[in-house]
Write a structure and sequence with these properties.
Largest sheet: 7 strands, mixed
Radius of gyration: 23 Å
Distance between the termini: 64 Å
Low-confidence stretches: none
Structural class: alpha/beta
Oligomer: single chain
Order of helices and strands: EHEHEHEHEHEHEHHHHHH
Helix content: 40-55%
Mean pLDDT: 96
Length: about 290
């Protein structure tokens, strides 16, 4: 099929290559100046009806602006795909705006990172049956075997991807804590070797563990060139918010999110409060800065 790709970063650029390698025709637009088109308007002009435009750009204002512009450029029956990590509530709202113009709107949660070009991307897709069916040839090219599903109505794709990323936070934090305990132990442990053997037969083996093994192999057991500062891109927060809204206990994901917050503090004010209180009630010594 022929479609337009907006955003040629680490994900969008490799997705374009994977689509083209399987025989699809992809017209492209990127704000960095690369691509076959210099604007969204020109991109739409390079496509024939029924058009499909896939967005792989940052969530929030960039996606909102692109969607609003496309709603003024596309015709009835055309389809917009948002493959970024948008909040599922935004996707539901945008789908409603698109439906009012007779335009299809598909929210596609995409997982696979920089390895997706070779290995494929797990796709969690939400939207109406007609729009999803129209894009299915592209979905099947991008995903590995059994790695794509139409998970539900508009918003469902980004909702499932949000929870996916929340789970990812918890898994990463569990590995981080376990290797921290081993690193601080009395034993002279080769963490790279341990990560290596855990990849085979262990119940904790996973792709994340393989990536950790690769990082230790590249950076060394002490990871001395990597700062312990961990950002979050929003999905973990949204997962915790939804857990609260649904009264669902999510202690692991919540703790993993808060651990990321803690990683960004040079010194915790809360820790200063604790030290001051111990000094006040127990006379325990405090360290001066």
């Amino acid at each position: 099929m022929k479609l337009g790709m907006v955003g040629l970063g680490r994900m969008g650029g490799n997705m374009t290559k994977r689509l083209e390698n399987d025989g699809h025709t992809v017209q492209t637009y990127d704000q960095g100046g690369t691509g076959t088109a210099a604007s969204l308007e020109e991109l739409v002009g390079q496509l024939e009806a029924r058009r499909a435009v896939w967005l792989m750009i940052p969530a929030g204002d960039p996606t909102e602006q692109a969607v609003q512009e496309l709603l003024g450029l596309l015709d009835e029956g055309d389809v917009i795909v948002d493959g970024g990590n948008s909040n599922f509530r935004d996707s539901q709202r945008r789908a409603g705006l698109a439906a009012a113009k007779g335009i299809g709107y598909v929210d596609a949660g995409v997982s696979g990172g920089v390895w997706g070009l070779a290995n494929g991307y797990c796709l969690m897709v939400g939207g109406e049956d007609d729009a999803v069916g129209f894009l299915e040839p592209a979905f099947k090219t991008l995903a590995p075997d059994d790695g794509y599903a139409h998970v539900g109505a508009s918003g469902a794709g980004h909702f499932v991807k949000m929870v996916h990323n929340g789970i990812e936070y918890g898994l990463m934090q569990a590995y981080a804590e376990g290797f921290d305990i081993m690193n601080a132990s009395e034993f002279d442990l080769d963490l790279h070797e341990i990560a290596s053997i855990w990849r085979y037969g262990s119940v904790v083996r996973s792709w994340l563990l393989e990536l950790l093994h690769s990082a230790l192999e590249t950076e060394g057991n002490d990871l001395e060139h990597i700062a312990g500062y961990v950002e979050d891109s929003g999905e973990g927060r949204w997962t915790v918010f939804e857990a609260i809204n649904e009264s669902v206990p999510a202690p692991v994901i919540s703790a993993a999110l808060f651990a990321r917050f803690a990683s960004r503090e040079d010194e915790s004010f809360a820790a200063k409060i604790n030290a001051a209180l111990r000094n006040q009630f127990g006379g325990h010594a405090v360290r001066s800065e």
